Amino acid sequence: MHDAASPFTAPAMAPASATASAPVMETFASIQGEGLYVGEPQVFLRLRGCPLRCRWCDTPGSWALTRGSALTPFQAACKVAQAEADRGPWTVSVTGGEPLMWPDFVAGLAPFLRPRRIHLETSGLFPSSLERVLSAVDHVSLDLKLDQDLNPPVPLDVPHLESAPHGPQATSAARRASLELVRSKDACAKLIVSGGRALHEFEPLVEDVVELAPNLMLVVQPVTPMHGVSAPEPALLLDLAGLARRAGLGVRVLPQIHRGLGLA
Ligand code: SF4
Known about the structure:
Layout: E1 22-31, E2 41-47, E3 53-54, E4 70-71, H1 73-84, E5 91-95, H2 103-107, H3 110-113, E6 118-122, H4 127-133, E7 139-144, E8 150-151, H5 168-182, E9 187-193, H6 199-212, E10 217-222, H7 234-246, E11 251-253, H8 257-260
Parallel strand pairs: 2-5, 5-6, 6-7, 7-9, 9-10, 10-11
Antiparallel strand pairs: 1-2, 1-4, 3-8
């Protein structure tokens, strides 16, 4: 069921423009705790809304939409400047939730945020929306998710959003299309590893990177144990690193460092 009175613009309803809006959950300065730019001071622009249900999601509070939180790119850029205080300009990490629920908004940020770099953190499962924002972002951090780690998606109550893939075939097709899109981009592929997993489960994901985007750095990220999800065996991290290296990929094994620093 769709709500015709939704305050949020959606991909098929309006062209990318400065008037596109998105539900902003929070804007804050911190240290990038994951991926290729780990350790870099950044401002995080977290958007609400995600139809996926990763077993190990560390921001379930971002899944649902709330009324009254929609901002335009200009309004969001003002929030970024406030978060920087007099320390900027910093790179802006657009995160979520799944920011690709709001491609017009993401594509509309650049004129208001430059000269800052704009980084996008995405599940990697919404290739049509990713294609629409690629030229407006400087870096893409793209998750590689095991289908076994995805509970059934819950569609957002907004018309014309790109549908979340469901099931191994659809998930694989979306991941592969996303990898092809970022193959020549400043980007990394992030493999989230939780407890109870085995090496062979990750082989198809690593093979996709080798085939479709071999220049990407593979970041192996053990989950931070929370909400009943356990950390992986250390040996599995080494085995994954070995698998990637043998396949010719650059690889890093990194936990979420911002949590160790006590930062958001
Ligand atoms: S895509 Fe991100 S926000 Fe959505 S459920 Fe997965 S980890 Fe959580």
